[in-house]
Amino acid sequence: MHRWRGVSSNYWPFDVAEYPGDMNVVGEDAGGSARVQPGHLAAAMLTVLAAPAFFVAEIPILGFGLLAVGLLLAWAVERPVSVRGSAPSLLRDLSLITVGLGIVRSIPLAAELDNWAMLKFTLALGGAVAVPYLVSRFVYQDRATGFPWRGGGTWGRLHWTWLFAAIVLAWLILPGYFIGSGCTRIGQPWAPRI
Fold first, then answer.
1. Separation of alpha carbons 22 and 87, rounded Å
2. What is residue 34's three-state secondary structure?
């Protein structure tokens, strides 16, 4: 377990005090409890709010604007920023979110069941996970994203409950999503027509 400006964490595998620059994302108030710096929180909120702008309101210009302002604010509150290194960087982390959102935004999310649409959907969603991972690993040379495939331990009750809930929720939500999006083949067998 490591300490990062007064916050204990198992996430960061290093001591931030070893790295130059202003790393004070989390500060301490007079009582010694942790608090997030307002500029960092605003940058993260602007970046994350791009998702509803893209996928709920369907206003791409607003989504791209929120991403740009969020990244610029992260850059402004975190200077100097190193592209590579193992020290935490809000700008690098938010840029990974931006890349993932941009990839998902590159395709229409309408429910289409033809093979080409399903292939595009698979590649976009797979790319939204794989590309930020590869950028984090090989360009930024950090481990901002990771998948504990090995050595993650056995699954507890929370893990199995989460998996079960995801399956049940998908079963409950997806038919309504497909019907509401104009997919006319719902309820018909998905077997190929001969």
1. 11
2. strand
Question: How long is the chain?
Answer: 194
DSSP secondary-structure letter at 3? E
| Amino acid present at 186 | I
Quote the pTM value: 0.64
- The span from the CA of 180 to the CA of 111, in Å, is 9
Q: Measure the CA–CA gap between 187 and 194, rounded to whole angstroms.
A: 18
Continuous H helices in the chain: 38-48, 50-55, 60-78, 90-105, 115-134, 157-180
- CA torsion 189-191-193-194 (nearest 10°) is -130
Q: How far apart are CA 179 and CA 191, in angstroms?
A: 18
Contacts of 121 (CB under 8 A, 6+ apart): 107, 109
The residue with tokens 């959102």 is 101
154-183 tens-digit pLDDT: 778 888 898 899 999 988 887 777 666 666
Phi-psi label, residue 39: left if phi above 0, alpha if psi -120 to 50, beta otherwise: alpha
Pairing of strands 26-28, 2-4: unpaired
| DSSP state for residue 16 in the 8-state scheme | G
Per-residue pLDDT tens over the stretch 6-18: 434 443 443 444 4
* Helices and strands of the chain, counted as H and E runs: 6, 4
Evaluate the CA torsion angle 59, 70, 25, 8 in order and state its sign. positive
